């Protein structure tokens, strides 16, 4: 029985899209594309999203809506007495760790909101140095991470309809409008077409197993799949929701924002003489420079960073809700103390990541800082493994007629669409994920 639910269909779509359209599209996609060849990475990301990400997203919708339970209990309901609940436990643990370092980047965004309103962002600022100083300051990094977690905790405490959904339905359209304005300005900068070419004209020497694995991880990260977040959100769905159209909306909104982010960033990168492979700081160095060339740029930059903060928070809501739902087992009375306790634990675990760019930059494991290690393990390994398990569970363990019958509820798509989805989930998604892994490990 669903003890909480979305108040409307659009509320679910906006919340699920908000989970996807966070730093995955706005922050991580531009810098990951920039360090992996631009257009080749974008093509791989697009293909993996369409052919693998979307089928797995729908599979997570099936698990969540069919069971009406959190990520762990969902597998207990659908496969009682089996080992499958460990997939849910892995997803919950991944969301916990993911939010611990994601909240660090959320803290950076929050810091830039303060920079924008305090006047630290101005036409004569050295934006590269400003970013380096922001992330290297141990007190500031931890403080802003804590503030970001406090906001996340405050919203998730409110539950689904009154917390997450209400926060998601107002500012997402404003984010799209500002993004489109930025794209127009960025494309009219001198030398901008070199950036468009970098994003859309492939240089095939960048096509290699590592790029494929990272693009696959980005497809999963961008759609919030493989870590049970979408299982959790869809558990609050009614049977009247058209899951095919909802998933399609979430996917295309995510791809659109990723493309818009690329069309803002890369033309400006080349116009202002920046290198596209700067890494995580790309959006924080280039975007402020772009705004200095726009009328009322400093005011607009402050507003834009507020909206980016909101988009960042909507993803954080999904991660925290995944952990909380598993902790309270549909007992909403336990929500507030659970959210506060889990939020505090995530903040503490995230402190080493917050320090990874300052006093903790020499704390390395396998040659990676704590922040980079968590990022690599979650997005390049845990998410694809989680997605593979979901695909196998729905398409090979669950009974086919029951799966298709459930997915058709509330749907008015063509009769062939569920069949095509099921075939892609059963064969294409597992084979593609396994091939990428095998290639990366040097087995083929």
Number of helices: 18
Largest sheet: 2 strands, antiparallel
- How much β-strand is present in the residues? under 5%
Name the CATH superfamily assignment. Amino acid/polyamine transporter I
Number of domains: 1
- Order of strands, widest sheet: 1-2
The pLDDT mean sits at 86
Low-confidence stretches: none
Q: What structural class do you assign from the helix and strand content?
A: mainly alpha
Q: What does it look like?
A:
With 444 residues, the protein is mainly α. The protein has one domain (9-440): Amino acid/polyamine transporter I, CATH 1.20.1740.10. It contains 18 helices and 2 strands. It has helices at 9-20, 23-34, 39-67, 71-78, 85-118, 127-136, 138-156, 160-187, 192-200, 209-223, 229-234, 243-271, 282-291, 297-328, 335-354, 370-397, 400-407, 416-440; strands at residues 364-365, 368-369. It has a two-stranded antiparallel ribbon with strand order 1-2. Strand 1 (364-365) and strand 2 (368-369) form a beta hairpin. Helix 1 runs parallel beside helix 12. The longest helix has 34 residues, at 85-118. The protein is globular. The model has no long low-confidence stretch (mean pLDDT 86).
């Amino acid at each position: 029985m669903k003890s909480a639910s979305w108040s409307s269909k659009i509320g679910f779509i906006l919340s699920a899209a908000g989970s996807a359209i966070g730093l995955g599209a706005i922050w991580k996609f531009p810098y990951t594309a920039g360090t992996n060849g631009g257009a080749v990475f974008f093509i791989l990301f697009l293909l993996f999203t369409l052919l693998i990400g979307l089928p797995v997203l729908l599979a997570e919708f099936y698990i969540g809506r069919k069971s009406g339970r959190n990520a762990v209990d969902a597998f207990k309901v659908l496969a009682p007495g089996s080992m499958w609940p460990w997939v849910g436990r892995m997803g919950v643990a991944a969301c916990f760790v993911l939010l611990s370092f994601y909240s660090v980047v959320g803290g950076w965004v929050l810091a830039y909101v303060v920079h924008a309103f305090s006047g630290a962002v101005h036409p004569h600022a050295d934006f590269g140095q400003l970013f380096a100083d922001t992330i290297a300051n141990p007190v500031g990094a931890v403080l802003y991470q804590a503030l970001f977690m406090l906001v996340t905790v405050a919203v998730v405490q409110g539950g689904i309809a009154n917390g997450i959904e209400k926060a998601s339905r107002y500012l997402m359209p404003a984010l799209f409008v500002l993004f489109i304005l930025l794209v127009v300005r960025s494309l009219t900068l001198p030398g901008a077409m070199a950036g468009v070419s970098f994003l859309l004209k492939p240089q095939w020497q960048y096509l290699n197993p590592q790029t494929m694995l990272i693009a696959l991880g980005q497809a999963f990260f961008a759609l919030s799949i493989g870590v049970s977040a979408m299982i959790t959100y869809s558990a609050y769905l009614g049977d009247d929701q058209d899951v095919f159209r909802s998933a399609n909306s979430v996917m295309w909104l995510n791809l659109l924002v990723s493309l818009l982010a690329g069309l803002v960033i890369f033309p400006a990168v080349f116009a202002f003489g920046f290198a596209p492979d700067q890494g995580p700081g790309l959006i924080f160095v280039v975007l402020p420079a772009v705004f200095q060339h726009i009328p009322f740029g400093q005011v607009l930059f402050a507003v834009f960073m507020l909206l980016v903060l909101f988009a960042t928070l909507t993803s954080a809501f999904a991660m925290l809700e995944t952990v909380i739902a598993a902790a309270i087992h549909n007992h909403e009375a336990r929500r507030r103390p659970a959210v506060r306790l889990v939020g505090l634990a995530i903040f503490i675990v995230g402190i080493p990541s917050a320090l990874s760019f300052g006093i903790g930059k020499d704390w390395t494991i396998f040659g990676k800082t704590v922040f980079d290690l968590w990022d690599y393990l979650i997005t390049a390994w845990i998410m694809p493994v989680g997605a593979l398990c979901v695909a196998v569970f729905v398409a090979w363990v669950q009974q086919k007629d029951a799966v298709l019958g459930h997915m058709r509820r509330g749907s008015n798509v063509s009769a062939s669409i569920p069949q095509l989805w099921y075939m892609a989930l059963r064969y294409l998604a597992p084979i593609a994920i396994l091939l990428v892994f095998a290639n990366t490990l040097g087995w083929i």
